[in-house]
Write a structure and sequence with these properties.
single chain, 500 residues, seven-stranded mixed beta sheet, 20 strands, binds 1,4-dihydronicotinamide adenine dinucleotide, binds magnesium ion
Length: 500
């Protein structure tokens, strides 16, 4: 099978990255960190350093936040149609540079090239076009007050101000864009921090923002570590809102650290999402759906279906089907032709996932397939797709987010009514996503109402759609991204009364 990209393009990206550290984008210019410090970027398919980036700190974040503040009034006053035009132009540029972005994303994160192209590049262009539409459609309401007299009363939606956007490493490019697109549509300015594991495509985004013609300071990009650059954003008095995607632990730390100026906070955190298969389900769809729901992007997906609940009548058939998929799944470097699952993002993530598998076995689970680091790929962070059976609630592998290709398969029986199935599905501290497979619409919709999850996928999901709200119940987060709620999260609501 031939590679779906030009080898020369890859060579050019590699030599460009080797030529020097990526820089910060502050106030419309690329600059090194004030400290002069940089950090290494590792290719997860080889474990080798192939690039570096400026390690932004407090001083850089402060300059970025000040630039965003200076740019704010002008951007908020820019006609919405003009903001929309710039967002649409950025979408076109992203598509035009799609191969470069996807290659860089795959090198940086390890994901298969085709995933980088479709979920990453096309997903980002979709986000921009969807949110460009909102720029001209953010409206208030008129209201009739009950106080005596004659009134004209209405609400205004105004941009919340300077936004700190902190993104993780699992879908670096599309998540960066999914944060800036609604913020910019609403009239906010941004300080964006990509994850330290995957800083590279955010820097390309910065170049394209300049090329599209966004004025200086509208989006500033500070690459760097969470504990330094990230923490500096969260406690900066000039940042009005933080929009964060990442671990529940850091989400809680952000809530605590943002009390200084009571920042608005949106959190899209972890999950331990249930995938529930009834005996009457179309197994030809449910089995591959369940398999790729946990093996896709090597399980490094907030909404991964990591807990499988199958009716006892079809349990063996379903688990055997998923195991077969696990055995045949092509694991390899993201840029190798035909790769279906890439490496985990880092040594740290590999260690974390392997230690969960060990902990599961220690608590009595059976490693039904997989469970090992791939020995012939010693240099990269490759792990086998893994299915654990004999898992029960209370085990760490069932309760905690693993963020790797590790499925816990569990059974329910004839004796379990929908309340019992829902209780099992709802039994973790998370509530991000869920999936139901059945031909009985009544069963599906009854269970849907009983699930404490921000997303319910019945007989298949539509992927991440910019129009569909994304977010969690319980400790999976605060607020929603995408859809109307996603753009309104970047606004303040003002009530105005006029006594006539
Ligand atoms: P993390 O939550 O530490 O990192 C996510 C982002 O937050 C990165 O940009 C990081 O630099 C930043 N960050 C870290 N500490 C910060 C702080 N004190 N203040 C401000 N920003 C900070 O996630 P990590 O350590 O990379 O992964 C650990 C686990 O988190 C994973 O195994 C997975 O379970 C979960 N996770 C969930 C994600 C999701 O999409 N819901 C994405 C990434 C990780
Ligand atoms: Mg961390």
């Amino acid at each position: 099978m031939n590679a779906p990209f030009a080898a020369a393009a890859l060579d050019q990206i590699r030599s460009e990255l080797a030529s020097g550290p990526r820089q910060l984008l502050i106030d419309g210019r690329f600059v090194p960190a004030a400290s002069g410090e940089t950090f290494d970027v590792v290719d997860p398919a080889t474990g080798q350093v192939f690039a570096s980036a400026a390690s932004g700190g407090r001083e850089d974040v402060d300059r970025a936040a000040q630039a965003a503040r200076r740019a704010f009034d002008g951007w908020a006053a820019t006609p919405p149609a003009q903001r929309a035009r710039l967002l649409l132009r950025l979408a076109d540029l992203i598509e035009a540079h799609g191969e470069r972005i996807a290659l860089t994303e795959s090198l940086d994160n390890g994901m298969p090239f085709m995933m980088a192209k479709f979920a990453g590049v096309m997903g980002a262009a979709d986000q921009l076009r969807y949110n460009a539409g909102w720029a001209t459609k953010i409206t208030g309401e008129t209201v009739q007050p009950s106080a005596p007299g004659e009134w004209h009363a209405f609400t205004l939606r105004e941009p919340v101000g300077v936004v700190g956007a902190i993104v993780p490493w699992n879908f670096p490019f599309v998540m960066s864009v999914a944060k800036i697109a609604p913020a910019l549509a609403a009239g906010c300015t941004v300080v964006l921090k990509p994850a330290e594991q995957t800083p590279l495509t955010a820097v390309i985004l910065g170049e394209l923002l300049l090329e599209a013609g966004f004025p200086a300071g509208i989006v500033n990009i500070v690459t760097g570590y969470g504990e330094t650059a990230g923490a500096a954003i969260v406690d900066h008095p000039g940042v009005d809102k933080v929009s964060f995607t990442g671990s529940t632990a850091v989400g809680k730390a952000i809530v605590r650290a943002s009390t200084g100026n009571l920042k608005r906070v949106t959190l899209e955190l972890g999950g331990k999402s249930p995938n529930i298969i009834f005996a009457d389900a179309d197994l030809s769809k449910a089995i591959p759906g369940a398999a790729m729901g946990i093996f896709g992007n090597a399980g490094q997906v907030c909404a991964a279906g990591s807990r499988l609940f199958v009716h006892e009548a079809v349990f063996d058939e379903v688990v055997e089907g998923i195991k077969e998929r696990a055995r045949t799944l092509k694991v390899g470097p993201g840029l190798a032709p035909g790769t279906e699952m890439g490496p985990l993002v880092s040594q740290e993530q590999l260690d974390r996932v392997l230690s969960y598998v060990e902990s599961g076995a220690g608590e009595g689970a059976t490693i039904s397939v997989g469970g090992q680091r791939l020995s012939d790929q010693d240099a990269g962070y490759f792990i086998q797709p893994t299915v654990l059976t004999g898992t029960v609630s209370g085990m760490r592998v069932v309760e905690e987010e693993i963020f790797g290709p590790v499925l816990c398969a569990m059974k329910f029986g004839e004796g379990d009514d929908l309340d019992a199935v829902a209780a099992q599905a709802n039994s973790t501290e998370y509530g991000l996503s869920s999936a139901i497979w059945t031909r009985d619409l009544s069963t599906a919709l009854k269970l849907c109402r009983r699930l404490k999850a921000g997303t319910v996928r019945i007989n298949g999901g539509a992927g991440v759609d910019p129009g569909l709200p994304l977010g969690g119940y319980k400790q999976s987060g605060w607020g929603r991204e995408n859809g109307r709620a996603g753009v309104e999260a970047y606004t303040e609501l003002k009530a105005v009364t006029v006594a006539l």
